[in-house]
């Protein structure tokens, strides 16, 4: 029986960057897409992705957290702790991402505009790391 490709969850909330499904597939992943962290949290209760690609949005109006990422990362810790997280981010918000990284592991981050070659390299590294566990 053939081994199915590892899952990749892409969370697209704002968008504004190229569609990367073909790239994800070319690097050996089975991509699925949701359009909010809330939908991602429900998705994660049923599936365990090897990779989660998400956007970082800082919101000063949030009372209990600084961004959309904390809720997602808490869900990942519970349901998919081995998942590698790649974050797309505005360069100006990097200091805030660094604060999140103190508490939650981020595998990699890419500034807008997204460098697809760098994204491909990160996905290749994930494949190398999970290759021994599949």
Output the keywords.
Rossmann fold; 134 residues; single chain; alpha/beta; five-stranded parallel β-sheet; 5 strands; 5 helices; 19% strand
Using only CA atoms, what is the Rg? 14 Å
Q: Which percent range fits the helix content?
A: 25-40%
**Quaternary organization:** single chain
CATH homologous superfamily designation: Response regulator
Q: How many H/I helices?
A: 5
Strand line-up in the sheet with most strands: 2-1-3-4-5
CATH architecture: 3-Layer(aba) Sandwich
Biggest pleated-sheet summary: 5 strands, parallel
CATH topology (fold) name: Rossmann fold
How many distinct beta strands?
5
Give the overall silhouette. globular
Structural class: alpha/beta
What portion of the residues fall into strands of 2 or more residues? 15-25%
Low-confidence stretches: none
Distance between the termini: 14 Å
Name the CATH class.
Answer: Alpha Beta
* Overall pLDDT metric: 89
Count of the domains: 1
């Amino acid at each position: 029986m053939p081994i199915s490709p590892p899952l990749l969850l892409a969370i697209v909330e704002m968008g504004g960057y190229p569609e990367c499904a073909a790239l994800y597939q070319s690097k050996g992943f089975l991509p699925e897409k949701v359009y909010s962290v809330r939908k991602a949290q429900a998705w994660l209760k049923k599936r365990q992705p090897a990779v989660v690609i998400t956007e970082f949005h800082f919101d000063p109006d949030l009372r209990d957290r600084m961004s959309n990422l904390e809720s997602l990362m808490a869900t990942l810790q519970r349901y998919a702790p081995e998942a590698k997280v790649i974050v797309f981010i505005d360069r100006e918000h990097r200091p805030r991402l660094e604060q999140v990284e103190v508490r939650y592991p981020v595998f990699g981050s890419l500034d807008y505009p997204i460098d697809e070659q760098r994204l491909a390299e990160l996905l290749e590294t994930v494949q190398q790391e999970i290759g021994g566990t599949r």
